[in-house]
Specification:
Protein name: tRNA-guanine transglycosylase
Number of strands: 15
Distance between the termini: 32 Å
Strand order of the largest sheet: 5-4-13-12-11-10
GO biological process, one term: tRNA modification
Helix content: 25-40%
Number of helices: 12
CATH class of the largest domain: Alpha Beta
Organism: Rozella allomycis (strain CSF55)
InterPro entries: Queuine_tRNA-ribosyltrfase (IPR050852), TGT-like_sf (IPR036511), tRNA_ribo_trans-like (IPR002616)
Shape: globular
Length: 337
């Protein structure tokens, strides 16, 4: 078993710093990883990502590559296909709500062309074609918090079936804990503890439930990833719980809605740049923000860009939102030292 994660410091608060090393490339943690659309972070080019000091990692949704897997194989890997050789790892997995209805050897996935069922063997072949460094197996998503014991047992059984298929074919696999209740989440952790070769854990679990869980010793020194959508105010709680990786869809949660994120870890606020009050607003997005958008443009200009559907408006908002969340993470880490 190859260990890709090293803890470099453990704070009294629970926050830990570390590094993930894969294929000769290293990424420091904790880190925010942006969810992608067909492998790209919307509205942000490679050079902009470098200027924003983004970690060399992206979260890839498996559904985005259903119709391009053969083309990817011709290129050799998804890194070559996307032209981003500096990607540290991409995790193929679906972030889906409780409406997901999994069956024995299939799972529902969401792609840019809609929802469809995917067989476990299809998913394996897709992962082999894409060749990401770390893979998430398919996982069952229970419909509600209050489920019958028989349904909970079935959820564990399905998740383990998906996991076995993935472990047998890939070196770096994260086990997935997907539950709304403490009992089911703890049972899933106990099941995953039987597989010591797992690279880490990914949680699709409410933060309030995670705080009640007992993480098995087998995973105490392995990276922990959080899959559910989070706000800046959630970062502090997750960091104190020892989480290392946070999947954030900045574009979907904020930018495409015309929202600029402001505030801190105690109180997240937002500014809707679509509002009429910004038509003649000469203030920057955020007065004390050092990002390019805030230092060079005013709210009225971005309001105009959004109303006319100019791409630059979304680019500027994306720059600010990514910068803000990264700076918030850095400030939380520094405060704990």
């Amino acid at each position: 078993m190859r260990n890709i994660f090293t803890i470099t410091s453990q704070r009294v608060s629970g926050i830990r710093t570390g590094k993930i090393t894969l294929g000769g490339k290293t990424m420091t943690t904790p880190a925010i990883i942006n969810a992608t659309s067909r492998g790209a972070i919307p509205h942000v080019t490679h050079d902009l990502l470098a200027d924003l000091a983004m970690p060399p990692a992206r979260f890839l949704n498996m559904g985005d590559f259903l119709d391009t897997s053969k083309i990817i194989q011709e290129h050799g890997s998804v890194e070559s296909f996307l032209g981003t050789q500096d990607i540290l790892f991409g995790c193929l997995g679906h972030i889906k709500s409780g409406s997901n209805k999994s069956v024995e050897y299939k799972s529902m996935l969401q792609s840019h062309v809609g929802s469809r069922q995917m067989k476990i063997t299809e998913y394996t072949e897709l992962c082999k074609a894409v060749k990401t460094d770390i893979c998430l197996p398919l996982y069952d998503v229970p419909p509600t918090e209050d489920i019958a014991k028989s349904r909970a047992f079935k959820s564990i059984q399905r998740t383990e079936t998906y996991l076995k298929e993935m472990i047998g074919n890939f070196e770096n696999v994260f086990g997935v804990v997907s539950a709304s209740s403490k009992d089911l989440a703890q049972s899933l952790l106990e099941m995953l503890a039987k597989y010591p070769t797992l690279t880490g854990l990914a949680f699709n679990v409410p933060i309030s439930v995670i705080s009640q869980l007992n993480i098995p010793d087998e995973f105490k020194e392995k990276p922990l990833m959080y899959l559910k959508p989070i706000k800046g105010t959630d970062l502090k709680d997750l960091l104190n719980l020892g989480f290392d990786l946070f999947i954030v869809d900045v574009h979907k949660e904020y930018t495409e809605k015309g929202i600029a994120v402001v505030g801190n870890s105690e109180e997240e606020k937002s500014i809707n740049l679509n509002d009429e009050c910004h038509v003649e607003d000469a203030k920057p997005l955020v007065n004390d923000c050092k990002c390019y958008a805030c230092e060079h443009h005013i709210r009225a200009y971005i309001n105009h860009l959004l109303k006319t559907r100019e791409m630059l408006g979304f680019v500027l908002l994306q720059i600010h939102n990514i910068h803000h969340l990264n700076q918030l993470l850095v400030s939380l880490i520094n405060k704990s030292s």
